[in-house]
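Entry type: protein chain
Record version: 2
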Amino acid sequence: MTESEDRVASGKAWDEFCDSLKEAGQVVQSSAAPDDAFNKAEGYRYLSRMLRAGLESFLEHGDPAFPQLRCPCHTTIKMGADNPDNYYQSTSLDPNYDYRITGSRGTVDYLGFGTVINRYSTGGGMKTTGFLDSSEIKLGADGNLEIIVSQKEHPGNWLPMGPESNSLNVRQTFQDRINEKRAEITIERVGADKDRPAPMTPEKLDRGLAGATRFLRGTTQLFENWSESFVPTMNELPPADQAYCQSIGGDPNIFYFHSAWEIADDEVLVIDAEEIPECQTWNFQLDNWWMESLDYRYHTIHVNKYTATYRPNGGVRLVISHTDPGVPNWIETAGHSLGTMCWRWIGASDHPLLQTKVMKLSELAD
């Protein structure tokens, strides 16, 4: 009997999985995190969401020999200031294989592919090893695309992998979700035509459960630490550490601003972008303490280049408040009094700074 067979048969693998979940819950009790019941409830829900993400990634879709693009981050699994304008996809890779991505380009405004070294399960972030976006992709006459993902350079659309690449990330960024059509793409291992995945084994289960809990602990602690680092710039919105953003999986075409916010019931936070640079797009979003985007299904918690109302001078003013202030570009707090926030310049010629100010709601009316 192998070690994994013994661990599964005896129940030890499951017991350690459950013990790891209890240990991961300590992140919600961090001394710097909000200590009220509302934010802790969101924190424990966040843990449940990260567990689902980890199980899907490491147990259900962890075989790089049979990759399957899935959406790892959506309306009920959120992490790291997930962009409400994005449709995310990912899959596991093995740099010893070559892969082929095929499908239709669609009309989505931005489409980016990145191979990465994903170390979220160990708290080490994510390093990009190859990148290709829609401006570089040659399409067929019918609008279809084909991309080869490999370590060795390939003619045509080629997405490089490095010797440690273990994952593919795809970002589709919409300006107008109602009218734009997303890219419909699939991925296959080159030469896998007649192969089939092996059935579940004790080794796969043992490895998958352990990977899911490592991901849960590493990811939640990484982003909780990041939230804590925003406290000194509360209600300001300075440029983030761009090198750090890239080290945890940021898009190379994006310049990020991150910080924390907190306003009282009778206060508003005003953000002024006096200058909008030449760019593919830009957006702003409001997040909770755990760096989850607020619920954009039912609340207006973000705005982008397409949806914003502009001032006569071409700039933009956003107003974050608990109730409708009766002005354009209202960002709803969706029942939150504090959290984090993010602004992105995407494909921008330069990266103008942003001005912020907290004032009374009555002052804004005046």
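Comment: The longest strand covers residues 110-118.
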